Amino acid sequence: MRIKAHTGQRAQLPAMAKIFISILIIGGLAGCAKSASSTTTPANSYTYISVMNLAPYSPSALVFLNNVQATPVINPGDYSLAYGHLAPAIYDVKFKVNGQDSTLATIPAASYDSTHYYTLILYNDSINGPARALKINDDFSNLTISNSFIRFLHMCLELPTVDLYMNNTPVQQNRNAKDIVPNETFSKFQSMTPGVYNLQIKKAGTDSLLGYLNNVNLQAGNAYTIFLSGSKTNSQNPVSLNVLQAIDN
After folding, report:
1. Domain count, the chain
2. Distance CA 113, CA 94 (A)
3. d(CA 109, CA 189)
4. How many C-beta atoms surround the C-beta of residue 43 within 10 A?
5. Which of 39, 51, 118, 236 is surrounded by the most beta carbons within 10 Å?
6. Cα–Cα distance between 45 and 211 in angstroms, integer?
């Protein structure tokens, strides 16, 4: 899938280099973090977590759960290709600067329940501002085998309020950067007819194209996160539009 993105002047930006992280590299956290294929532990004994580093103005990070390193280095723009799984428990989350004992952002201790899915997002509070962290619940309970499902995250602080179009039809309107932080409603998945879609990001209420992604295949029974992220000043994490399929690793 080729990714294309444009500034307001339609100058093409390079596609973001995707470096997918393998979350939960440790095996001793809260009892286990083994793959389902290598253990006889019932599947419902796990909780599932993915990570997205959408903080282009901050350094590379590591995730610590209860003060134990849980991921490899996560550079700005990196995100989990699949959910990692570990034992359900109460976890305190810290994003720490790679190579330092300095904390970028925290998520207060909370329960991560069995058979539940969560995404941990590192983002910047403002342009060139400090990092913050957000935990969202990924609720797949309403998914059906006959439809596909999407949600849209606008996490690019340098772009204005936007509309998301799919095959020239607006499906999300007046979305502000990091509006998912105060409004968890935007983390919910909406039903779509399965098919191949051309995605367009436009300045809200106008026909001004900010980014696009063509030939996105949304399959029945699957959920997808469409997200706008990056920075015009970070050559390693430029502005880009991406689609991430939810996969249980």
Report:
1. 1
2. 19
3. 26
4. 11
5. 51
6. 41
220 is written with which tokens? Answer: 């029945």
Cβ neighbours of residue 166 closer than 8 Å, sequence gap 6 or more: 192, 197, 198, 199, 200
Residues spanned by the domain of 142: 4-245
* Signed CA dihedral, 154, 159, 160, 163: sign only: negative
| HSE-CB for 17 with a 13 A CA cutoff | 8
The per-residue pLDDT for range 93-148, each reduced to its tens digit, is 999 999 998 999 999 999 999 999 999 999 999 999 999 999 999 999 999 999 99
Contacts (Cβ under 8 Å, ≥6 apart) of 81: 20, 21, 244, 247
**Helix, strand or coil, per DSSP, at residue 145:** coil
CA distance 71 to 57: 20
Distance of CA 147 to the CA centre of its chain: 21
Predicted TM-score (pTM) of the model is 0.84
